[in-house]
Structures are given as C-alpha cells and as structure tokens.
Amino acid sequence: MGPEIRNCQNCKKDFTIEPEDFVFYERIKMPPPTFCPDCRCVRRMSWRNERSLYRRKSLNDKDVITCFSPESGINVYDRDMWWSDAWDPLSYGVEYDFEKSFFGQYRELLNKVPMPALFLSRATNSDYCNHTGEAKNSYLSHACWGIEDSNYVSKCGNVKDSEDSLNVTDSELVYEGSSSEKIAHSFYIQNSENCTNSAFLYQCKGCNDCFGCTNLRGKSYHIFNQPYSKEEYGRKLLELDLGSYRNVLRVKEEFEKLKLKAIRKYANTYKVENTTGDNVGEASNCKACFDFWGGIRDCKFCINGGVRLSDSYDGYGIGETSELIYESVDTGLNGTKFFFDIFVWGGHNVQYSYASHGCQNIFACVALRNKQYCILNKQYTKEEYEALVPQIIEHMNTMPYIDKLGRVYKYGEFFPPELSPFSYNETIAQEYFPLTKEQALVQGYKWRDPDTKQYTVTKQPQDLPDHIKDTPDSILEEVIGCLHAQENHHTANCEASCVTAFKLIPAELQFYKRMNLSLPRLCPNCRHYERLAERNPLRLWTRGCMCDKPNHSHQGGCPNQFETSYAPDRPEIVYCESCYNSEVV
Known about the structure:
With about 575 residues, the protein is α/β, with parallel strands linked by helices. The protein is globular.
C-alpha cells in the first residue's frame, strides 16, 4: 500500500497518510483518521487545562483549587477524597442507550461522576500544581514530573530549586531556562546541555562560567563568545551584574543580536536515529515528535513525554514504560493499548476513558480504579463486555455524533472539542495554536472571559527597585502590576493570559536574593508566554541547508534537505547536522 492523500474534515486541507501509518492503524484495529495531524493535535489539546485554576466548593463541601471552572458542569472532590475508598464510581454506572449518540452519553456521565480537583499525584506542599507528579514544595508548576522547591516551571522533569523554566530536565538552580538539560546554577539558558555557572547561553554544551554565548562546546570564561582569563571574567561579571533590571534589559538586547547571527542546527535533538521533530532525545524511528525524550521508539505525532515509550501515535503527555497509545492525553505509566484516553495510568485495553487508573478492558468510563469489564461505569461479566463493545462500536458508526459545524465523529475519533469541560482559552491549545475569541467561536470552541479582578495594585512595575539588593522583604506584601497590563504594553497574547498583577512568594524572593537576580516585571502567565515565544512551533517544513562554505564536504551550496521547525521565511541561519557539526563541534 502506498501513501494516500485525504482531506481533513476540519480545516479542509489535504494531508498524507503514509504506508507506515496504515500498518499502525491495522495493528490497533482502528480506521484511518479524518482530521489532519495539526487538527488532531488541537482537538486533543482542547481537553487539557494546565494553568487556569479556580477556587470553588467540592462535593464534600471543601474549599478547593481546581482546573474545572464553576461553569464547566463538572463535579469535583478534593484530592484526598477522590483517591479514597469513601465513594464508589460504579454507583454512577448506566446502561448504554442505542437511541443516543455515544459521545452525547459520555458527556452525560462526565457531568455526574466526580473528578479530582487537580490532576496531581504523589505531591507534598504543592497544592497549586496541575498535571504534575512527584512534586515537593512547588508552586504553580504544571505538566511536570519529579520537581522539588521549584516555582512557575512547566513541562520540566527532575528539576530542583528552580524558577520560571520550560522544558528543562535533570537540572537545579535554573532561572529562565528553556529546552535544556543537565543545567546547574545558570540563568536565561536556551537549547543547551551540561552547562554550569553560566547565563544567557544558546545552543551551548559542556560549558561553565560563560555569559552571553552561542554555539560553544566545552568552554570556560567566555563573554559574548570572546575568551577571558579567569580574573578578567570575574571583573567583567561584576559589571554585567544581573541583580540590576536595567542590566538585564541591556544584556537581553545584545544577546538577541548575537543569537540572530548564530548558526542553527535544523533541530534540537540528541542521541536520535531516523527521527524528526524538535527537542527530542534518545529516540529511534520517531516522526514529528516534540519535547519528547528518554528511550522512545516507533512513535509519531507525539508531544511532551516519552520515557520508555514505543509504538504510539498522536499523544500529548504520554509515556513512562508504555506502548500502543493512540489519540490520548496524559496517559501511560506501565500500560498498553490506551486509545482515546485522558489521564489514564496503568492497565491494559482502555478506550474512551477519563481519570481511570489500573484498569483492564474498560470502555467509556470515568474515574474507575483497578476495575475490568466496565462500560459507562457499569460492571459486566467478561462475556457480556466482549459481546457489547463491538455493538457499541457499530452503533458509533451508524449513529455518529455530529457537532454544530457538521463534523462527524465515528469510532476512531477523539472526543469532540465542543464537549470538552474547558473553554479554548483555558487549554494548552491556546498556548500552541492561539486564537482570538472571535476565531475560536467561529471554529466551534467555547471561550471563557476572564473573571473580574478583585485586587488593587499597590506597586507599579516601574516603581520596583532596580537592584535586588535594594529590595526589602516588605515587597511580599505588595500587589505588583504586570508590565503588559499597562496601556502601552498590552499585546494580543496577553489579552488571553495576563492576570494584570501578581504577588511574590517568599521562596521566590529568597531565590532572587540568593542568586542575585532582579525582580520580574511581568506576571507569571506573561513570563510563561514569553518563554513559549522563544521556542519553535509544533510544525515541520522541508527545506535545505543554508551552508555554502567551501571547506566542508560539499561543492558549492550544501545539497542536504531536512525537516525542521524553522519556517522557510524565517531569518535564522539553518544548517544540516553535518555542516553544523563542522562549524561548532
């Protein structure tokens, strides 16, 4: 079988299904998708809210912080109650109704069965974190695993004593780090690894005591790519002093100019074989994967996760010693055959289920634990289950769910976005595929206008002390206005994310003082969006190497082509791996 071109029923653009894709779909007994890869990605993301949190009452009358807004239609328990045996999810079970659409019935069940207020597991003193596990003493850190004493970090793994970072792993004492690993006592670090005691690095490896540098390997005592003696470096650092906000702004401006001149490798990858994507490590035979690492193989269209994952397609936040995952979110952890699942850990053969753990052979269930042979939370015998599931699949195809825009959802499609408990601008879809309110509504998504703020700004950002050493502890009592909320600085991105003002927390202030770092002038949401803007999009383009240097192995311009997340019209200088290594390794 050769490749086939299909037309996406959502965006109406053509997309290609490759022979290897058909092999995978046949293996898991699924029909080929009717949405293109990008539209499938947005559809999954529209069911995951990481950062929008609300105060409300739980079903057991406790004040909780939750990712489900009061208007979501979802009932919640506090974490301890939800994980306890004090309630029975099977008590909400219903018989399948062949007179109604499958997805409509599922949403009815979702409105009844309590959900955990936050998706948080094995966490200590980290009550404001979401979609995070193995967390200790952390605050407003989301989509992380194995973090300690870290605040405002996102999609990080095995990180300690760090602040304001994105996609950083196996690191400590990091501030404003992104897409980096094995970093220690370093600030403003991008796409780098194994670096220590440094600041403002881009695509550097094995460096220590470097400042404002790009594409260095195994260097020490460099500033803006120029070597210094140890003594000269120390004196120069005193002048650059990152404790001063004015200094930070000057350094950022110079660093951005240096970055623009830097040669870029077509993708930020390491230890990969036959793999495409960006920010990928320790992978073989993986295609169109992003922010994926840790011994992965034979995966495609996967984002954020990995770690001993194999033979899986179309996932966000999936992995951890699992295989055969398809069209799922926040799913894996020692399991196999998870299809169309959200927040499902452990088990086998789980389909169309939400927040169900350690289960085997369940279909369309919510909040079950260690169960088997259940459909819509109703218990069946093995024989009854195996007879009923094929009938439901046939019914999904003969009576499909049709959404308000006419999109058809049969068996093999992920949950419709219009049934998501979240509005588009609450979800990670807004982070990676931003829309205005008008665009979202036209495309069939819900939109939630921000709540009216109930606080009064007591300190404007321009009134903050320039240097951290001049900052009194009383700053913890101030409500600081976000710089983006001021009239002349408001941006389109911030209209969806800026919380207009913020307060410093004690651990955060202590970190700034200990590391000699100036106070931020942006709220945590705006800082997060600025880090997102530094990374490339979750898309790939085919383009050629820009190298034309005569001392390489090619005559004239390099003929190599590759798939890259650098769009062809961008100004950066992009090289293939061979030419890049010839220049910087």
